[in-house]
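Fold sample X.
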Amino acid sequence: MIAIPYLTALTTYFSYGLLFAFGQVRDFFRKFIDWWSSNNLQGYAPICLGLEDFYVRRLYLRIQDCFNRPIASAPDAWFDVVERYSNDYNKTLKLTSNTSRCLNLGSYNYLGFAAADEYCTPRAIQTLKKYSPSTCSSRVDGGTTALHNELEECVANFVGKPAAIVFGMGYVTNSAILPVLIGKGGLIVSDSLNHNSIVNGARGSGASICVFQHNTPSHLDEVLREQIAEGQPRTRRPWKKIIVIVEGIYSMEGELCKLPEIIAICKKYKVYTYLDEAHSIGAVGKSGRGVCELLGVDTADVDIMMGTFTKSFGSCGGYIAGSKDLIQYLKYTCPAHLYATSISPPAAEQIISSIKVLLGEDGSNRGAQKLARIRENSNFFRSELQKMGFEVLGDNDSPVMPIMLYNPAKIPAFSRECLKQNVAVVTVAFPATPLLLARARICISASHTREDLQKALDVIGRVGDLVGIKYFPAEPKKLQEEERVLKLD
């Protein structure tokens, strides 16, 4: 849990209160303007009611230039950010023909496969010529090629499961699978900070949902014991099925899941484990096989393994890996398999090729080098930020590192100042995070050089001083220099 300093919480609440008050005043006068203006929808209820889109109109639009920034190149270590301007106080943004070359600290390109690769790119191009960009069909009609079968076998072998099924979209992998796995009479026990795709999938399943405190195995134990003892609501019958859902790396916190402890509790109560490895598969572990490999957990102890190809593999889509019976059942019942267009053949080849690079099957050791570099880059960058006095969330080895901003005024200030100095960062605020916990989320890549990271640290350090987000005392510069010399030695 994040312990917010009292003064920081107070000033953040005051800032949001001030924005809310001014927004309400503007809405009040806006009613008079709308009353005089012509309305062509007489008799219709408004699609967007005042309070329903208040946050967007009065808070988000003020700073929307900090979000949805279009790019004009591959999301490599450096990329081109398209410049925009507004003539109506950020209500609408217009593109220009100008671009800025910026250091990329926002993309999920953990291993650098999203840019041109000497092994993956030629094979993806060859596949594009052979199969075309899309199958234009679902898997059960004409959308299954030899590549799709090869990909599923490749993924199953890579994650250490008997079988796997792949989908064309990572978000849908969670939101479409959960309603198939469990329904009314079942219980989903979900980490309080699980991804929105899990939340929507759980809600759509019709199962009862309980939440346990983020990454707290002791509270999970309490919740399971209580729910098993009480049974279903009203009838008190035993639950038909219980699934515990956790993530390998939590995308907004950068924290590693306490998987060994959670697995032990799930075994104790004979409940199923669902592991979302969207951000961990490919990025952590000696051979990139995710948190199970990193934390020494046998994949046989994880009942359902989910992951995406949009981060470490530079492609699109997601997968579910499990027993052969489970995967066969999903192929008969999952709407994302039955009705959605299958994953693009070039995207499938990109995934297969990148996995071969990781395993050294391309005849080189580039995969091992990428894995070593992402780990070194992540740990170096995290430690340097902490030494400068930033409040950085997450664990070592995680390539995701949020820098806490808190105050709403610091969100646009940090983002804009970094962009002025050619460093592109992602800022995250409500509703993606709790109201008080706005942050900048840094994503490190194996494609970043040490010079890239040092430039980013210099810029973020200067901007941090300017904006006032160094909430902890910084280490003396003399100590930092001595540590750097020792590391070089």
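Fold sample Y, listed below.
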Amino acid sequence: MGCAISGLAAKAEFGERNTDAAASAVCPSGDQIQMIKESWKVIRDDIAKVGIIMFVRLFETHPECKDVFFLFRDVEDLERLRTSRELRAHGLRVMSFIEKSVARLDQLDRLEALALELGKSHYHYNAPPKYYSYVGAEFISAVQPILKERWTAELEEAWKTMFQYVTGLMRQGYQEESKRQHLLALSPKDRPEKSNTAL
């Protein structure tokens, strides 16, 4: 795989999605990768804090996202969420994925495999792609105060580009798994025929 993937385009606004199949996301440039890696060195010291802030803000700005999380679905008290061990654990898992993504920006084949697999697993969690871009936007909001004067418009664009790229891959993985599960649910006689290409 290269830097372009189906179904997502680089956009002026982070949360916008393009459903045109011909659209593609672009991986971060070399300069953007360097900016992301440098800023990550500061962010990683506060990953638990960022994870909690990110999800509390996500549930504040997009309360419908709580429906995906069985444990948090009925929790209305945001202070209870802030102190939730389960939310902290999930935030750390997401931050771990972001850390792995940052580390693999120089190895796009490994990053693509990681993001595709995460998208496939989100199919089984019943976490649809429409929520993926929200996490990136909330991550960016959560890290701005940590990075203080280091935060620039260029750094923001670099993180947006990375999240658009990764969430596009996750979306692709989700769709691949959805199709695979649909085919598995069909009776054998209703499945499309596989052509035998062996000679």
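Sample Y note: The mean pLDDT is 84.
Also: The helical segments are 30-43, 47-61, 78-82, 85-103, 108-124, 132-147, 153-185.
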